[in-house]
Amino acid sequence: MSADAAAPARRALPAWLQRLPRIYLALVGMVLLLGLISPLSVEPGDLLNLMRQGATIGLVAIGQTFVLISGGLDLSVGSIVILADVMAAQMINGQPQQVLPVTLLVLAVGAGFGAVNGTLVTRFNVAPFIATLGTNLIVFGIALVYSGGAPRGSIPPEMRFWGNGFIGGVFPAAALVWLIFAVLAWLLLTRTTFGRALVAVGANRRAAHLSGIHDARVTFLAYVASGFMAAAAGLLLVAFIGVGTLEVGTDFLLGSIAAVVIGGTPFEGGRGTMAGSFGGVLFLMVLYSILTVLALPTSGRRIVEGVIILAAITLYSRQRE
Amino acid sequence: QDEDIISLRSIDYLNDTSIAMPEGDAVDTSAFAKDEPYTIGFINWSTANSWTVQIVEEVRDEASLYPEIGEFIIVSSEGDADTQISQIEDMIVRGVDALLLIPVSPDAIVPAMEEAAAAGIPIVVFAADVNTDVYVTKLLTDSVQFGRVQGDWLMEQLECQGNIIVLNGVTGISTSDNRRLGLQQAIEACPDGGAGITILAEEDAAWAYDQGKLATERMLAAYPEIDGVWSQGGAMTQGAIDAFEAAGRPLVPMTGEDNNGFLLAWQARLADGFKAMSASEPTWQSRVALQAALRIRSTAFRCPPSLKTPLTCTCARNTPMRTGRIHA
Amino acid sequence: MTTVPVPAARRPSRLRRFVRQHQNVLIIWGVLLLVLVGSAFASESFTNPRNFPNLMRQSAALLLVCLGQTLALLVGGIDLSVGSVISLVVVIMAALMQPTPESMLATLVVGLFIGALVWAVNGFMVTRFKLAPFMVTLATLSIVQGLALQFRQNPQATIPREFSPPFTGDTGGIPHPFLIIVLATTAVWLLLRYTRFGRHVYAVGSNENATRLSGINADRIKLLAFTLCGLLAGAAGVFTAARSRAGDPLIGGDFAFDSITAVVLGGASLNGGAGSVWGTLAGVFIVTVLSNILNLAGIESNYQYIVKGVLLVLAVMLYRRRR
Amino acid sequence: MTPLLQIEAVSKHFPGVQALSAVSLSVLAGEVHALVGENGAGKSTLMKILAGVYVPDSGRLLWQGRPVTLHHPAQAQRLGISIIYQEFNLLPDLTVAENILLNHEPRTRLGLLDWPALNRRTRDLLALLETDIDPEEPVSGLSVAQQQMVEIVKALAVESRLIIMDEPTATLNPVEVQHLFQVIDRLKSRGSAVIFISHRLDEVLAIAQRVTVLKDGRWIATQPAAGLTQAEIVRQMVGRSLEDIFPPRQPAPAAAPLLEVRGLHSDRLRDISFTLRPGEIVGCVGLEGHGQRELARALFGLERLTGGSLHLGGAPLRLRHPRSAIEAGIVFISDDRKAEGLALKLGVRENVALPNLKLFNRGGIITPVQERDRVAEIVAALGVKTPALDQEVRLLSGGNQQKTVLAKWLLRAPRLLVFVEPTRGIDIGAKLEIYQLIHRLAAGGAGVLVVSSELLEVLGLSHRVLVLREGALQADWPIADCTEENIMRAATGVQA
Ligand SMILES: Nc1ncnc2c1ncn2[C@@H]1O[C@H](COP(=O)(O)OP(=O)(O)OP(=O)(O)O)[C@@H](O)[C@H]1O
Ligand SMILES: Nc1ncnc2c1ncn2[C@@H]1O[C@H](COP(=O)(O)OP(=O)(O)OP(=O)(O)O)[C@@H](O)[C@H]1O
Ligand SMILES: [Mg+2]
Ligand SMILES: [Mg+2]
What we know:
In chain B, 39% of the residues lie in helices and 21% in strands.
């Protein structure tokens, strides 16, 4: 309707810019703002470090993107991250030769809980909100029981490198892990039949079903991917921390959803990009830096944080009519 | 570690005034006397926290020593006052013979506590303060003092001059707020009233390693000159240490709390002259609380309305690895 | 062409239609019944007469929030900010309230007003800028929490003792929370069922565009529904203030997830247009009873998580599978 | 006499399309004014401008001689304009009564909703069309045709001066169309004006006083219906004359049956058996709700069967999922394109590619170039009018949406095509193309089953006709034996 008037102007932009998720516009603005109030925080090394800081939540956001596109929601990621963290630390227990087998096991466990979510949603028709909320409680309980509330164990330096180290002394290893997964996920979403089917299922499940898409299987796989990515994030987190802990301060759940939605994947699904989610996570990281630099008390921080998120989504993520 | 706990078992805390210092006039609790077995309820404030896990383990162990305990119910409020109110109400319905309570909020749970008291349930409050006197006894270490001790140490290290960064727990939770208050008092106690100290940045890091490290990284990126770190939690301090080293910045004096990871990290850097201190609230206070509850119910016991457990602290002069109660 | 009589379709009996139309609500009440019976077996304290007022008190605030949440979900929204709103209401009421009846009444009104105001702002953002309610309320969650921390007093301000009885007391053995639950549920039900506004709420959530094309100002309906949602959150804040009598800036913490859980349990759809007040009521009771029985039965927190998660999923499975 | 409504030089541009270019038109009180044109000619756009949904880029509207601007549907309603949209705008979770009286709900003196009155008034309104829809039924449980009835009744619920009907008859059977025409006559005699849009030109000539033709967003002609012929209208619409809309039938070769249906039973089907040979086009008719849809759906695995068997090419068919049907070479075109045919928010390319992803992938990896080429080819072949391959489908005109559905199923040569209302909402030129296409596919050896409520379509297209009544097969006649009359008799069971 009236928004159509703006359309010709938008067409004047070069094609690649048009395709770039609009979050990057906001991201550039935020980096400029950060540079303005704290020039030291935007040196190249610091910007790369932002990518490292975003890596764990970035991995979770990748899985969350798949699930949101399918029209669902995964509330269990936070607990899966914690369980993976606790399991890895306790099982590896400082022994380098355990790293690989435990990593594989933990990823399988994450994917397994994803499969539980997927089964509840597709086979038993449980609303994703409730299914994943239930799993979230169960998985957290398991993490508590497994660790007795006080996780033990530690991570050998070889593995800690992936959380803390720098490749060639400059590029954060964690950021590399994130990038690799993001690119793979992007290919999966845009270049494979699975990705296509996923988008179609999110946009109109009935029509997709009638087009011969295994809608249940595709939805199921989205949850498996989400559980898997959450476990991967847990592994990266434990590599970052070095010990198992139930006391993870990062809010993986709301953080990941916020990043994905800010990145342009609508809450109702049927659309969405990995590049957008990637940018959404970076946006949050820059936002946190700005908040730190502003040195406000928590009350002020929370207010500014909310206002900036509101401003960002108002700026670019207007829902299309 | 197990041995330490066992050795602690035999202690009669209530008669050892060096451990539990009575304050105020003792009251007669004979009105509460009742035949065993007892059903005891314990409302913990959170489960996913190694300090409270230790609290729970110790009280569970202590409870196993007393055959007169018929049932010992442990639930946790997960830091939520509304949940805790409901749990107190549920304990009333359950008809527990005594209630051990770590308050989540100093005021919000008062009406529920009043109700429990009115229902004849003796309450033993410990580990966090509450603004009412309907409990039978209360067992505390002082959170303000905790922050103050940390702050005093840091001021001493910095000679009241320099830039510091602050890592809090969760603003709005009394423990976090009170410790922070203690820091403020320490700063203001400087000869110049604190004018020489600048708080560059301050953040809530939820007592967690990852948030402590991330917050410190952001602060390091923004501020080239940081002279001290006041952190009110050990895991956060450990994160701060790692962040300083990752940024290639020399370590500055840091405060922390009794936490194994932090203490180990500190010990490893002792030789390099890293200065740190650790304050600690004893986890065995839960044992004291349980003993008090049982005495209130079983014997005519003159119970002090308030007990103070000592705040211990480990400073650079001492060796950092203290006796047993550190969870390995 | 010849005109032919169309064979008459069988019209279902009133009862069968009622059952079919209210299938979800009936099933969820069945689930609630199961939970109640199971609880009675699990702990004898559950049937202790004291437990009834207890359960009512524990349900009332959640129910008020959930009624609002139901409205928000019905128009296709969601409210994540409700917990902060409760905190803010409680903090401000505690700071303002003096122990005089006038002051109490005035602060009560202020409390309601704050809730409505927050949601009027939320609603404005959602309708004016076409933003996703999830994101808007996630942002307001943060802002309002910040405000609650800003306005809190340290030490916490308290609320006069006399403020509680009208909300948490009882009259002639009937607990006031029970009356609040009955009144609020009935009022919202009447609103949804017997007013044009109520029907339009369902219409907007069911198909916003179609509603707009019917000449209805969909934005106004949404704005109003959101404001009502805020008003109910404010009411929950008032109740929580009466229950806790202190300005705790974090007391609202769990309300958002608990309320969405209860409402979705009650059959509301996160996509809008579907949901009912009676289903919500059952959902609230299920959530409250679950916590209650786990405490009464003395299940430890570590296991409480697992048991709660399993029961939650089982309850919904029992109920969703029938669709 | 001032016309009720004058449209003066109205233009409307959408990204990539000039939907209307300076269209002028007037509508008189008490007349039925038909609007015809090809798919995408701009008919619906013009109507939405009258309904206050779109604001024209230029031009103006005069209502009883006075200029008006309509920015919101409520404004159009206040003037007395009501509209039946081409795309349904019903609220699935609400009941029929709530839908029909949405925004006009009767209230008691207390201002509360009067549910008994709501249902009563709805029942009265529904009686106008002599339909038997239950006012308390949720709309989601209705068939497409019933939903269309609800849409019509909804527009009649308010006293309007101008009633716009955008393809109201597309889903109705002839009997229902007769009822609608009676209602239109009543409206006319009451002095209301009706704008009537349809691709069925016989209807247009039967009901309209004047006919306006649009082409590519331009006004072509407005003329009295009396004396006008279908051929003339088609010439104006298409720009050339179409000789015979139904291409000559090739006789179906005698061959072993492609599809054998034996003793099919389900909730709605009773003991249905028939065969279909390769190259054969079989029509299937019956009154709404008598099992034709279900029969078609059963062939795609969408109906729960309680008995009977299916064989394709001699091999037994077990259809557990649409995918197994697709893999067996069966395609199914549903009559509910919004719910079952298209993902409206996705582009044309994504929709067309969806059932065919196997064709352009290697080991699960899509090859975009191949995909684009194949989709472009079929889109061009079917003449889907879209500004870009990635245009969101919901922005296409109704007819072009339907063509997109066809495109997605015809990209691969299927063995058996099951069509439900294949030409619903499709203009006459495109219809011809689709018929030709069906013939080509049949000539290539595919079998075709067409379920249609357009009797003429079935008669013009099929080799054989199946008639269903109450879920049972009443007749299985070669086309030579079929007349409109005997088919209607078989369908209704009424002996003439
Ligand atoms: N995204 C989803 N959200 C909710 N329910 C779903 C979703 N996907 C599938 N389902 C439900 O799961 C059940 C099985 O779906 P469906 O019949 O499509 O499976 P399927 O595609 O046949 O799977 P497969 O071919 O692998 O057996 C259906 O009841 C369907 O409603
Ligand atoms: N909202 C929109 N955005 C972009 N293009 C649109 C929009 N609505 C319509 N169009 C385009 O405008 C043109 C006219 O469409 P319109 O719906 O008016 O055609 P129509 O004459 O009603 O066709 P049909 O007979 O198929 O219904 C088409 O090319 C269509 O794709
Ligand atoms: Mg049209
Ligand atoms: Mg299946």
